[in-house]
Structure formats: C-alpha cells, structure tokens
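Subgroup meeting minutes
Present: P.N., E.W., G.H.
Scribe: E.W.

1. P.N. recapped why we're keeping a running log of single-chain structure predictions: easier to compare across weeks, and new members can see raw inputs and outputs side by side.
2. G.H. added today's entry (191 aa).
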Amino acid sequence: MLLYLELFLTFFKIGLFTIGGGYAMIPLLQNEIVANGWATLEEIINFIAISESTPGPFAINMSTFVGVKMGGVIGSVVTTAGVVLPSFIIILIIAKYFYNFKDNFYIQGALYGLRPAVIGLLCSSVFSIFINNFVLDKSLLLSINQIPSAIDVKGIIILIISYFIYNKFKTHPIKLIGICSLLGIVLYSFF
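Output recorded in log:
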C-alpha cells in the first residue's frame, strides 16, 4: 500500500510540474524514477521508445509502463491517475476563470517566462536521449582516440536517414516508424 501511495505522489508531482507536454517531463521522469530505483536510464529510454510507438499521450503511456513494472495493473492505474489528475484539476480551474485573467499582465509575463524553460527542458531531454542511445561506452569518451569506438554508428545512420526521409519526402510518421524498424532489423541483425 505504501508503494502505491509513493507511486501516486511521485507521478502527481511529475504531472503537476510537466509544463510543455510529455517530452518536457522526461528530465523529471529520469530524476524521480532513477532516484527511487524504479527503473534504470536504459529502461526509461526503452519506455520512451515504446510510448512513442503506442497510441495515446506520451505522459500517460510512460506513467503506465512504470506503474506496471512497479505494481502491476494496480500500479499502472495509480501512476496514470497521479500523472493525469494535476492537469485535470488545473484545466478545470483555467476553463472556469480563463476570461477573467487572460489579459492579466502578470499571467502573460508568467506564460512568456515559461516558454524558454520548456524549450530548455526539451533540449535537455533530447541531449540525454541522444547520449544514452548513441554512445555505447561512455568511459571511452574520455579519450579522444577512442571516441569513434564509443559511438553507435548504426543508430546515427538510422537517425540521419529518418531525418532525411521525413524532411525531404514529408513521410507520414507511422510509415517512418515502420521504415526505421526495418532499418534497425537490417543494420543490427545482419551487420
């Protein structure tokens, strides 16, 4: 029972301070989940990959995966409720009072101040995910001569190809996920 309460409170906090959408929650997720010993950084990256390739909001998928890992079905319900409840409460309050304070000088200032913070959180998430996905052995990064053997070249090739296909041909993200999955099978299974 104590585990469920701890899961709920942790994910309530994550939901409360996730400003800017699901990706902005990644640094907070990393800190909270790893600190509590609920998942390793590698597991979080796998959860992110699975959350992105399954239907539904990223934040809910992530919380559900961690909840299942820690407390089964009940854990998933608890973590999902925890991450959703703050947004639900806040949006109810905003919906009720939005027109009363939408032009408020202080509210506008706060919203403008949040924008750079959200971008910073997103950049932090991208950098962290990049390092954990494309650096095979972080200890090799300390020596300039060993950097090439520390980098996952196959992963970077898939990243570059997916970027090119998406931007050049405006490929639908679902097709791109399929293409990259096939590239992963080919590059990691046969080479």
